[in-house]
Amino acid sequence: MEAQNKSALLASSGTAVEFQPARRALDHGQSDEDLMRADVYGLLAELFASPPSDGFFNRMAASPKPSADEPATPLTDAWGMVLSRAEAQAPAVIREEYKALFVAVGKPDVVANASFYLHGALNGAALVDIRETLAGLGLERDPASAETEDHIAAVCEVMRFLVAGELDESGPPRNLLVAQADFFHRHLASWVFDFLDAVEGHRAASFYGAVAGFARAFFEVERQAFDIYAADHADPA
Questions:
Q1: Distance (Å, rounded) from C-alpha 109 to C-alpha 26?
Q2: Spatial separation of the C-alpha atoms in residues 235 and 187, rounded to whole Å
Q3: Following DSSP, what letter does each residue of the chain receive, concatenated?
Q4: Mean pLDDT (the chain, rounded)
Q5: CB atoms inside a 10 Å sphere around CB 73
Q6: Residue 18 host element (H or E)
Q7: Which residues of the chain have pLDDT under 50?
Q8: CA–CA gap between residue 45 and residue 47 (Å, rounded)
């Protein structure tokens, strides 16, 4: 996070969707695993917010390929596919693919907002619900942004905040894992797999088909982990 404790993600229009915590974050001592999870949420926010930047392609070129000695998992296989397609296709082609999927004067071919999948139209009850949750977390969106808070990039960015421990309160410490699980189930798991189906099923999806496959594998791991945590901490009957 920047020194001002602010995170900004770029929407397709180039305007910023900004989330400003009400108070400075403290170091919650996140594990390496949690920091890696936060990085994945941040990467997905970046990729779904706007066409990939030159910086993204530079990072992908420097990323190590999955080792043949490591056990294959759906997540590592999906990540390998993202790297392969990023390497095989020209950046300009991938940027045009993003526009074909997510950008239009009217309704894009693939809508990236929760309200559309939960209610069949934009700006539905899901948007009101997430705004109430964000207010409780002390976060607010830049009103000049072109994207609403229920956009997949914005939702992933909030999850990055929660996983990285970049929220804090002046009162008793927040149970970040409970906050993560609640936000994930209420504002992501309820619709994101339908969104990923739409991305993967689009005739123009190549690189973004791989991104959607990686996101699906990652969200499945997250969902299973949250379910296990809930079962382990359930009140005895």
A1: 41
A2: 24
A3: --TTS-EEEE-TTS-EEEE--SS--------HHHHHHHHHHHHHHHHHHSSPPHHHHHHHHHSPPPPTTSPP-HHHHHHHHHHHHHHHS-HHHHHHHHHHHH--SSS-SS--BHHHHHHSSSS-HHHHHHHHHHHHHT----TT-SS-TTBHHHHHHHHHHHHHT----SSSPP-HHHHHHHHHHHHTTTTHHHHHHHHHHSTT-SHHHHHHHHHHHHHHHHHHHHHHHHHHTPPP-
A4: 83
A5: 12
A6: strand 16-19
A7: 1-27, 171-172
A8: 6
Position 203 scores a pLDDT of 97
49, two tokens: 């917010």
- d(Cα 125, Cα 225) in Å, to the nearest integer? 28
Q: Do 199 and 218 form a contact (C-beta atoms < 8 A)?
A: no
Check residue 65 and report its DSSP letter.
P
Count helices and strands in the chain by DSSP H and E runs: 10, 2
pTM: 0.84
Per-residue pLDDT at 175: 80
R_g over Cα of the chain: 18
What's the pLDDT score for residue 27? Answer: 42
